[in-house]
Amino acid sequence: MLRAAGLEPGLLHGDYLTAYSLAATGEVVTVRQPTAHPRPDLAMRPLEGDPIGVRLLLAARCEGELDRAYAELEAAYWDVAGQAPAYQEWLARAARSAADDDEPRPRGR
């Protein structure tokens, strides 16, 4: 996404907790999930469009563990996501855009 915008980052870091800490000290600029809660030591701005998609995966020892935990974990995720102001703002922007384009709304609770 950064390179597509003509930016050549000197460092890419995959661990978002470390990236947030580095951003808070002024060492980097990083992408942030819209479900993340605000931090007083970080400023956040939405990117134009929807350039980033996040796919969450569950891992367990066996399929049975995943089957037993999935519904509860999904509900907990949507509860937390629903409390994130940036995610709520994104849902509102996406809903307005979808209404303008006559497309389906994004999923949200």
Describe this structure in words.
The protein has helices at 16-24, 63-82, 85-101. With 109 residues, the protein is mainly alpha-helical. The mean pLDDT is 79. The radius of gyration is 17 Å and the shape is globular.
The quaternary structure here is single chain
Number of helices: 3
Q: N- to C-terminal separation?
A: 27 Å
The description of the largest β-sheet is: none
Shape assignment: globular
**Helix content class:** 40-55%
Report the C-alpha radius of gyration, rounded.
17 Å
Q: What's the mean pLDDT score?
A: 79
* Structural class label: mainly alpha
Summarize the SSE layout with pairings.
Blueprint: H1 16-24, H2 63-82, H3 85-101
Brief synopsis:
With 109 residues, the protein is an all-alpha fold. The chain contains three helices and no strands. The longest helix is centred in the middle third of the chain and has 20 residues, at 63-82.
Descriptive key words:
single chain, 109 residues, mainly alpha, 42% helix, 0% strand, globular
